[in-house]
Amino acid sequence: MFSWGGPVVTDTVSDVGSLAFAGLAFTCALTVAKKAQGRLRLAWSLFAFGLFGWLIGDAAWLVYRLVLRTEPAGFSFIDVAYLMFPIATGVAWSVNAPRERRPLALRPLLDGLIVASALFLVLWPLILHRLFEQNAGNEAQLALALAYPIADLVMVTMALVVTAAVRAPYRGSMVTVTFGLIIVAITDCALVYVQSIGERTNPLLAIGWAAGMLLVAAGALRELHTPRLAGVTAAVTRRRQLFWLPYAPLVFAIPVSVTALWEFTPGDRPLLVAGVLLISAALIRQLTILLENRALLDVVAEQALTDPLTGVANRLLFSDRLDHAMLLRQRDDRKVSVLSLDLDDFKMVNDSLGHSYGDALLRHIADRLTSVVPAGDTVARLGGDEFAVLIEDGPVSAAELAQRIVEAFDKPFYLEGDDLFIHPSVGLATAPPIDDEEITADELFKRADLAMYTAKRAGIGGVQTFTADMRLVDRAELRTAASNGGKRRRTTVSGIQLLGQLRRAIDDAELSLVYQPKISLSSGGIVGVEALIRWPHPELGVLTPNQFLPLVRQNGLMGAVTDLVLDRAVADATTWFQPGTCEMPVAINLFAPSLDDLALPDRILAAVSDAGLPPTALSVEITEHLLVANIRRASTVIDRLRANGLRVAIDDYGSGYATMSYLRDLRIDELKLDRQFIAPVLRSQRAAAIVQSVIDLAHTLGIVCVAEGVEDEATADRLRDYGCDVAQGHYFSRPITADALRDRCQVGMSNSAIFPITD
Ligand code: C2E
Ligand code: CA
Ligand code: CA
């Protein structure tokens, strides 16, 4: 700085110093290149290569000045070596430049144009116009003179563009390196300026280069100590960019170019070109930002209305569509129905197979729902395993669509190479005609929910349609059901491991039957038996139906179980059934979906006749709420069975809803009054009144009335007084094995006063 010791010392210190700092920068960059991966590694290798060129240039310069004591004249290989630095660096950072998707793909290029033309605007009045004037007419000379400033311009531009796009933790090193590059470029320009005013060089410039190289080295070292996230090979992302950085040169470009344009001469034309370029690039860049913003807004709007997991509507969109549908109903009296769906035992899937499996299942379910539901209607996921469907006026009635949706779950879901059965509880509510009743969207939705909870409580699948009496259902119980995530623990023993054992038990016919006698209240004799299934489990003991039937139902094993029960019951019946002496029919319980199977009557009749038994040896019991789903088909099956001589009973009468219509629509032989009415018959006058009336009603319709769950003598007496025909319960006999039953039967033939039986 102070030229102590004369020009030789100054030259030596500056040349050796430059070389040393360039060497340091090169070594640091090379170390980073060795450690980095992917695109980053390529970028740093190219950068190190450029620094190597600079190093060669410095070394050659030193040899010329200090050893050969001359200076290379004109454009020499030293210039080539030096120019390698900005060129390789420009390429290096363009390798590392951010890759954007459309409409942003152009953005780095536009940023480059903005930065480059802004820098050009700054450089023009400072040095470039001088070079143009001095080399006017001599293009080759001009090109040489421009080589350094232009190469530096490209280098700084690329560095700024990349730095702007680098994510925060990795930005420090890039900022430092870019600072170094800018100082090197400024020093280069200063050299051009010095030369343009006629001097060869200036020793002060060495300080600029040294400082630049030192910063490059520091930046490289910082890069080396930045912790790399796993998998981050290119530290460039779109997020949290220094979005203003490409505009930074404008801060200098505007005042400088305004000053220059003030005294515009024809020689300043390149300035105009650069200005136009700058403005166009900035405008186009703004345009890409507008496009991007609009695309982002679309995405945000879409995300606000759809469920991210399944892509179907979310709660917000659903209630919006429902409100709209209710408005249409007001105006045009259009039909509106809401279907509320809640998966049974989804929690079990989640708990035993994992959440990602559960998520995949939910996606499959959403797909299946959308494939069944017509395009005009709305499928929505309301959260968890809750779905809803909005059914508007269309060619398909809501009840039919609901039925189709339930049937869509009869096929298993294929996930990770396995078949999985899952069923929903479904509630349906339809808005009444506007003249009949005013109803809000909210209320309609609540009704569908209420119907769904009723279906869930019944635990038998199928669709429950909202009926007014559901509003009388114990709200407190619903609330606890809801707070349990809508699930009621129906299975005490459940789990995936049990399912495998169950399949094996069914395959090996390990499930067994016990029989509970039905007693004639007038004669005290056995008039029939009911077959009840049991699973003698090796570890858990004998399991009752409530403990494993849900598992059977949910896994599509009902058909197999029904066949097994049918075969076993018929086989057992052959051991006691003797026409004329012991005509005790056996009743089997049927699952709901079995009734949808129109081939079922033939199978049952074949099983009976194959065993050589008359059809009267068998009867079937159908739980009342099972009938809800498809009354017409159930009615067909029932008629077929009865036409062939089988007896059909409605089971658990009074435990479900809308039961009167069954008595009207279905032709049946027997009505089994649910336990919940029989138990309080002595205590509650109201229960007694109901029992009495139902017995009378049954008799009016020519139907035999059976009382279930009779546990004591007084109840039996009371029922006899009411005229009840048949009773069943622990007071008479618990369910017993086929062998025990045969013994009793033989005794009973000789002695009619065999009851009560205790075991
Ligand atoms: P359900 O058809 O109502 O069968 C009567 C249930 O009441 C039986 O329970 C029986 O053991 C029980 N019970 C009989 N007398 C009394 C009594 O005095 N007091 C009390 N508290 N309970 C009594 P179980 O065997 O546990 O069967 C439960 C349900 O499982 C049955 O109800 C039936 O719906 C179903 N189920 C049983 N076996 C089969 C079958 O083979 N196939 C089908 N699909 N369902 C079956
Ligand atoms: Ca039954
Ligand atoms: Ca029953």
TrEMBL record:
Keyword Membrane: yes
Chain ranges of the EAL domain: 495-749
Presence of the UniProt keyword Glycosyltransferase in the record: no
Gene3D superfamilies linked: 3.30.70.270, EAL domain (3.20.20.450)
Domain GGDEF per the UniProt entry, residue ranges: 334-468
Family matches, as SMART domains: EAL (SM00052), GGDEF (SM00267)
Pfam families on file: EAL, GGDEF
Keyword terms, alphabetized: Membrane, Transmembrane, Transmembrane helix
Segments passing through the bilayer: 12-32, 44-64, 76-97, 109-128, 140-162, 174-197, 203-221, 242-265
Name of this protein: EAL domain-containing protein
UniProt source species: Mycolicibacterium arenosum
